[in-house]
Amino acid sequence: MTAAPARGAGPVSTPRVLGRTCAAEWARLWTVRTSWWFLLAAAVVLLGVGALVGTEVAGEPATGSPEPAWRVASAAVVPAQFALLGLALTAVTADHGTGGIVPTLQWTPRRSVLFTARAAVAVLSATALGVVLAAASAGAAALASGGRLDLPAADGVSVLGTVALVVAAGAALAVGLGALLRSTAGALVGVFLLVLVLPLLLGNAGWTWATAVAEVLPGTGAVSLLLGEDGQGTTRQAAGAVLLAWAGGALLLGWLRTVRDDVR
User: Fold this and answer.
1) Helix axis angle, 236-260 to 153-181, nearest 10°
2) What digits encode the pLDDT tens for the residues 248-262?
3) DSSP assignments along 107-138, one per residue
4) How far apart, in whole angstroms, are the C-alpha atoms of residue 260 and residue 240?
5) What does the mean pLDDT of the chain come to?
6) What's the chain's Rg over C-alpha atoms?
């Protein structure tokens, strides 16, 4: 009687591959020095702004009840977000510049799984860091103010939720542009144009059409949400919708480029 031939292992399920790929992407993200430099830059900006504003408030005459320190953190996220977006972007583009994407695709040939894992790790990492550092910034402001600034819980939940939305949408935009352009420099330029340069230029141009275009750019939406300002014809709800639309569109384009085009 002959033995039955051994059966090979079946295909690994997609959730299992996704979990392994997420773990690999997490390890890759935090074994690169660039990620730590971006984290340091974000921490310096957020904690530095919080401490400076708190110190300035401590030197002013008392005006009655303490003001919420969360406003300081929310404003500090406006410049600090660029470090977090850079961290998310380089998580996608770094190995395209070094050629490391080729062995990565050999290890994970399911391109949709690879893109999903990279996007999830980059966006969630940037968002978590943004929320933690924003909370630390508010704490630094309250501590340096000598009691002139406080930390009401209700305001904290609202501000940190807004920070999470803005950073997550911005990181998703950066990931999508990085996957679409496959160039760190090109994607960084695109992020700066959409989040900083074009909203400022068009918003202050004085032309009706330029103002209308500026209102639907992600940078305008981010500032509107973080600073609590409604633009001309733009509500906070509309600003949030604009951010999510840009993030979703960028991710879609990045995914299409990843699954359809060969790498070089």
Assistant:
1) 30
2) 999 999 999 999 877
3) H---HHHHHHHHHHHHHHHHHHHHHHHHHHHH
4) 30
5) 89
6) 22
Asked whether the beta carbons of 91 and 97 are under 8 A apart, the reply is: no
Q: How far is CA 250 from the centre of its chain?
A: 13
DSSP β-ladder status, 67-68 and 149-150? parallel
Q: What is the pLDDT of residues 197-226, one digit of tens each?
A: 999 999 888 899 998 999 999 999 999 999
**Would you say 173 and 233 are in contact if contact means Cβ atoms under 8 Å apart?**
no
Token pair recorded at residue 42? 């974000």
Provide the residue ranges of all domains of the chain, joining segments of one domain with +.
19-58+65-260
Q: What are phi and psi of 149, to 5 degrees?
A: -120, 140
The amino acid present at 57, given as its one-letter code, is V
User: What tokens were used for 21?
Assistant: 């790929």
**Residues constituting the chain:** 264
- For residues 162 and 225, the answer to whether their CB atoms sit within 8 Å is yes
DSSP letter at 196 equals: I
Helices (H) and strands (E) in the chain, counts: 11, 2
Mean pLDDT of 51-78: 87
pLDDT attached to residue 107: 81
Amino acid at 126: A
Whole-number pLDDT of residue 1: 42
* Per-residue b or e along 230-244, where b marks 16 or more CB atoms closer than 10 Å to that residue's CB: ebeebeeebbbebbb
Asked whether the beta carbons of 164 and 68 are under 8 A apart, the reply is no
Tokens of 53: 């504003």
Only one residue has tokens 């390890």, namely 27
What local confidence, expressed as pLDDT, does residue 58 receive?
85
- The predicted model gives 120-137 an average pLDDT of 97
